[in-house]
Amino acid sequence: MTPGEPALRQDAGGRNRASAAERAAAGLSIVMPVYNEAGGLAALHARIVGVARALKARWGLACEVVYVDDGSRDRSLAIASTLPADGLDVQVIALSRNFGKEAALLAGLEHARLGAVLFMDSDGQHPPAMVERLAGHWIDDGYDVIYTAKAHRKAESFLRRSFGRAFYTLINWGSRHKIPEDAGDFRLLSPRAASALRQLPERNRFFKGLASWIGFRQLRIDYEPAAREHGTSSWNFGALLGLSIEGLTAFSVAPLRIASLLGLLLAATALLFGVYILTEVLVFGTDVPGYPSLVVGLMVIGGVQLIMIGVMGEYIAKILSETKGRPVYFVAEHSLTRATSDAAAA
Ligand code: UDP
Ligand code: MG
């Protein structure tokens, strides 16, 4: 060790102990969107309590859990309100109606009171047992965004997988910043990453994209998602399509570029076809039967134009919704229960 270097900063493994302690001092908010999850919520909370206890024991990390009830129609809110604040603070935020998962995540992010933020589904598919590992990469290794990706998607239908692949190809096409494929919403953000995410002003949110767009030190972890324990996934094809269009228009102008390319292609084809017809008439003197080719040409151009007007409409709709500047969600109820039995947990 060179003289003058603080002895505190290194342990035997050469790791940065002092700053790990500094990081842990920021605390961790676990944000969970809840939509009709009454069946498994209490059991999940019990596991979270266990995780919080382990984090406390290992790093002295204080935790809170933020349940954002996204207008559930079952007893989710009632159940969330009775969960014990056993060694960690419990916040329950009830949105005024169902605003969708992205809005619920934003509500959680904005209400999180501790430094680091972890997003986690409340259906048990994101294993609480992994939280300690994610936290370790933040506290010990200093990563800012630790995101998880499904190790494989065998469980999903062929259609959904192809749809997913097409989506990421399109969204990353020609863009300087690539959004990682298969990354889920299960991710941990360091305090500076969380605050960066809070600064993004857009109302149409696509968290996977934004969390990767902000940069900082990112780390990917592959994991095996658990099967859903209760209820069914609230994503149907329509909802998924909506989110995809959301993500695409927020992150990529690929659809517009495809429009331009298609236009060019059509124009070139038309030009060639024109030259061909002219040669037929002028050189060979053939009487060109015009009707079928005219109809085909008209229909192709008409169809392409309609599609592209639709694509442009998506972007204009996005501009409209951003300029309206409406809040993303409204909070109907908000409660905070402070941790009990902290001494027992420590
Ligand atoms: N969710 C939500 N609002 C919605 C739909 C879902 O807050 O409108 C929550 C849901 O409670 C769960 C998470 O988002 O915690 C993921 O939902 P789901 O399991 O249905 O999606 P999947 O796992 O199939 O992607
Ligand atoms: Mg799920």
Automatic annotation (TrEMBL):
GO terms for molecular function: glycosyltransferase activity. It is an enzyme of class 2 (transferase). Gene3D superfamilies: Spore Coat Polysaccharide Biosynthesis Protein SpsA, Chain A. It comes from the Bacteria. Coiled coil: none annotated. It is found in: Membrane. The chain crosses the membrane at residues 235-254, 261-279, 291-317. It is a multi-pass membrane protein. The keyword Transferase applies. Its main location: membrane. The keyword Ligase does not apply. It holds the Pfam family Glycos_transf_2. Keywords: Glycosyltransferase, Membrane, Transferase, Transmembrane, Transmembrane helix. Residues 29-189 form the Glycosyltransferase 2-like domain. SUPFAM superfamilies: Nucleotide-diphospho-sugar transferases. PANTHER family: PROPHAGE BACTOPRENOL GLUCOSYL TRANSFERASE HOMOLOG, UNDECAPRENYL-PHOSPHATE 4-DEOXY-4-FORMAMIDO-L-ARABINOSE TRANSFERASE-RELATED. This is Glycosyltransferase family 2 protein. It comes from Rhodoplanes azumiensis.
